[in-house]
Queue: 4 jobs
Job 1
Amino acid sequence: MDLDALRADLEQVVRESEATIVALNAEETDEDGDIVEDAAAEAADFTENDREEAMVDAAEARRTEALEALARMDAGSYGVCVECGTQIPEARLEFRPEAARCVADQEKFEENEGQLSR
Ligand SMILES: [Zn+2]
């Protein structure tokens, strides 16, 4: 596992999320961005303000996940599912470097969270 590359990816996620948050907060009217498309799609029925709020929430959640992943990297526990302790497949980490859980536990987590769109 190339931790340096994954760390660079995570730092990129943090920067992009912060840029998204700043851009959304700065502009009242929508400029579309390459932002968390699932959240944007789910929010399509919301009013404009609710939609932007949902996008800010999604960006903040992603930023937090990336920062937590960087903290796990520093602690030496990166890449291990926080729920069951199994190694998260490298392909999953490359696709989603901020992943804190294996796929099965992530699905359970999202069912419980309900309102958290991603
Ligand atoms: Zn797990």
Note: The CA atoms of residues 42 and 48 lie 13 Å apart.
Job 2
Amino acid sequence: MSGVSATGRVALVTGAARGLGAAAAVALAEVGASVVLCDIDQAEVEDQAARIRANGGSALALAHDITSLAEIKRLVAGTLAHYGRLDILVNNAGICPRISIEGMTEESYDRIMNTNLRSVFFLSREAGNAMKPTGWGRIINVSSTGGRTGGIFNATVYSASKAGIMSMTKAFARHFAPDNIIVNCIAPGTVNTRLMSNLPQASLDAAVSQVPLKRLAEPSEIAKVIVFLASDLASYMTGAILDVNGGAVMP
Ligand SMILES: NC(=O)c1ccc[n+]([C@@H]2O[C@H](COP(=O)([O-])OP(=O)(O)OC[C@H]3O[C@@H](n4cnc5c(N)ncnc54)[C@H](O)[C@@H]3O)[C@@H](O)[C@H]2O)c1
């Protein structure tokens, strides 16, 4: 992204093995950040980090399950042990199993909430505290239009988790403002990733028909907004929610 530099910064991206997280890691590396790619899928995240290194970037893969506070602590400690600092956190990892209200179990409810929302709370706290010493920091939370609409295609709990991310963004923005750590959120519409592959084609077509731009987003288009929020260009924004959805929802 021309005009933006993250040289010298260290960025941690969760869910970075594929999809939006991988695109964010690539885009941050392209503007000069050293990137820690975290994912529960060890083989895939190591491959993704290797691809960034092959293109001249600095990247470290760390396999952790971000539903666990103990693993989150190990993730932040591993980042600091390798790079000595942490400047940018992208809370991206998320799951969206399609389960109806009637079909939802306690186990699935907890898994969705713990992956999508609990992780954002504990990782923002742990990573934000690690950013304090430099007096500069960025936390970018990945929500969804579902957080605005309540979800349309069997995504009730997912969408509630994404609405929770919007709320937490505002609380953490206030909490870390005295440390010059800004906290913002993006709410993507429908993006062309594996997460959407569990949606029947007819539902996908219906979703696209509601988008004024009449297409899905590519992960790289979302990643550009993440890079902006991670940069000095966003210096006077905090607690904001950016809708990146082709016009599908205009709150
Ligand atoms: N694809 C879309 O249309 C869309 C739209 C709006 C928001 N989003 C959000 O964007 C984010 C990324 O989605 P995506 O489409 O790239 O999905 P994806 O399924 O392609 O990638 C998600 C990644 O998160 C990882 N992950 C899942 N659980 C984890 C855990 N417990 N610990 C660590 N890593 C874990 C997965 O292994 C995977 O690599 C999610 O938060 C999703 O809700 C996606």
Note: Strands lie at 10-14, 34-39, 59-63, 88-91, 137-142, 181-188, 241-244.
Job 3
Amino acid sequence: MAKNDNLGEAKKAKNDEFYTQYGDIEAEMNAYVEYNPDVFRNKTILLPCDDPEWSNFTKYFSSNFSRFGLKKLISTSYAKGAANNEITLFEMESPLFDEEKHESRGKLFTLTRDKDGSGNIDTDDIEFSGYLEGDGDFRSEEVKKLRDEADIIITNPPFSLFREFLAWIMEGEKKFVILGNMNAITYKEVFPYLKENTSWLGYKSLNIDMYFSVTDEYKKWLVQNKKEGSAYKIIGDVVMGRLASACWFTNIEHGKRHEWLQLDTMAHNLKYNKQLKKKLEEYGCETYPKYDNYDAIEVPFTECIPSDYDGVMGVPITFLDKYNPEQFEVLGATESEGKGFSNGLWNGDISQAIVNEKRVYKRLFIRKKGENAQ
Ligand SMILES: C[S@@+](CC[C@H](N)C(=O)[O-])C[C@H]1O[C@@H](n2cnc3c(N)ncnc32)[C@H](O)[C@@H]1O
């Protein structure tokens, strides 16, 4: 294969063939169950990018089927994905198994009953319900029908189709928990939902790296082309893909989004916060500066949001990790992140936020809620 083709393949794999670890799924779902123990009771969950052979989402929800009181679990797999290289036991042992279709069709797996009479509904009871007409693309009519049948959509979708995937969920007006990239926060197809509090970030903190299983081909590519600790890490003796910016997006409640962020006064932060002092020195300012081109003050770190300022503040996008909608409202984002996002706060030519002629990174505009906020 030519070098460029290899690179193209690797890039595609990087985007779309990152497999989520069981522990990461468990840690995230625990937060929803902790907030509402009945969150999954009598619900149909669709895992639309998940072959049971590979997907820990399928493993996790089938293992917890009885405990959660699920009504039905549906998993579909995509014929063009790496998972299709393997024939699952569920598929092979089924009278519906067809080697030719295995190659070209998406697959449908369901779990509803105690098939093996073990007294428990679990992973062993997953049934291969046959091949889809097409390749299992979530955008197909047949997978849309499954979406419409489901109450909740949960998965790590192909990163390259994240915008479309979220739109697909929203079109179906479904509950969801999906993995994405932190950068998606400011996509024009995503940010309005976060601003309006119809979606929010999941439980996992943004500053925690995530590690994913990757295909053998991509492992090789990572080891040859990247430094350990950057795009990958060897855990045990397995090469795992690393993402520093992975985060969950959801519209299911969890406790963290109702925790109050402890704030100090401006004077306290200016006196004691070393990071803030250093940043203000870089800007050539003695206090929280006002942007040259937005009607808001710059707060370079979420931990420095002052308790005694009631106007509009520009904060890093990682603020959303600490966002409690009872404490703050999100007013907008810098215009560089999408047309019409600044909510009238922009009054310059350059859409990125500027402090003393220095451009700063992406910012969200927020304001404290409460009697004193203007
Ligand atoms: C990031 S991987 C995650 C896989 C699995 N959900 C997990 O977390 O382990 C995304 C998966 O979506 C599949 N996929 C890619 N394009 C798709 C499409 N258009 N429709 C459905 N699945 C797709 C890929 O083959 C891949 O298995």
Note: Residues 259-368 form one domain.
Job 4
Amino acid sequence: MKIPFIDLKTQYETYKEEINKEVLGVMESTQFIFGPQVTKLENGLAKFTGAKHAISCSSGTDALILALLALDVKAGDEIITTPFTFIATAEVIALLGAVPVFVDICDMNYNIDFTKIEEKITSKTKAIMPVSLYGQTSNMDKINEIAERHNLPVIEDACQSFGAEFNGKKSGNLSTIGCTSFFPSKPLGCYGDGGALFCNDDALAEKIRSILNHGQGKRYEHKYIGINGRMDAMQAAILNVKLNHFEDEIEKRIEIGSRYSKLLENCEELKTPSVFEDRTSVYAQYSVLCKDRETLSKKLNDAGIPTAVHYPIPLHLQEAFAYLGGKEGDFPVSERVGKSIMSLPMSPFLTKEQQDMVVATIKA
Ligand SMILES: Cc1ncc(COP(=O)(O)O)c(C=O)c1O
């Protein structure tokens, strides 16, 4: 039995008729940019998250850059974030000439250690950007408290946590602006690139909408320097179908993630992920800390079980960020976790039989 890392095939087969119908509908309508599918998606996303404004866009990366542009982040500004994330989080900061200021992670859930944020705030700090890694948020109450004390906005990089909750509130709707990704392998994924921003401030929402369409208000009247950050109608049509099934998929994700943790509870070779009591994880990745990652991944791969490493090299040690002067030892938790973290196959379509095989192979 060969197990898919993320089973997009079974998912497509399950919703095929609905998806094909909606995609064909877009082609027949020839409304490829904006239009009813995009409006429907934004209404659905707002309802799902409880945010007043849900704004669709072209990717998670663009959602992050739009958030920074809307908050007037400029060259030389400092943005506090984590070095243990996908590069896009810090890349967008650097692209604007701003400076990513890293804070190490907490070794319980691999998110930014909020107790270390305040010591990094300076007169140049413009925003705090926590990442809800692997599908679970940080303690957003604590981060918002710190931000309020210093009059700073918070941008949640919720690219991996769409559908997760913190104190009963949805990820994406926990801070000044929330940004998510609909990359195909994300908890809610489209069939190409897509993303969304969430906020509760009317003026900020209007500004984001304008910036993602070349800074236009009225057609060919440009108030801001913007980008082409629009989501296309085809992706919106696919997401509209998938959003209808998303609550069920979240339930399955939680069930499968919890079952992994229970079955691997006493396994000495690895540490299962901790999920705090006041939140849920949608397990964008089910990632474990291994005693010996190389041997374990080889045995799993040889048995037809794919694994992945999210992420082997923290951002302060990446060549692209060498100009920041980071060095080994700066962020010891991120470095340690990067050396032993490994993700197992995970999707709402992972069967009990497949999961049992993964667990049995690990235990063997
Ligand atoms: C934490 C994080 N931030 C940002 C992104 C960027 O999203 P996208 O690939 O949709 O541009 C991703 C997705 O890979 C991510 O995992």
Note: Residues 80 and 101 are 5 Å apart (CA to CA).
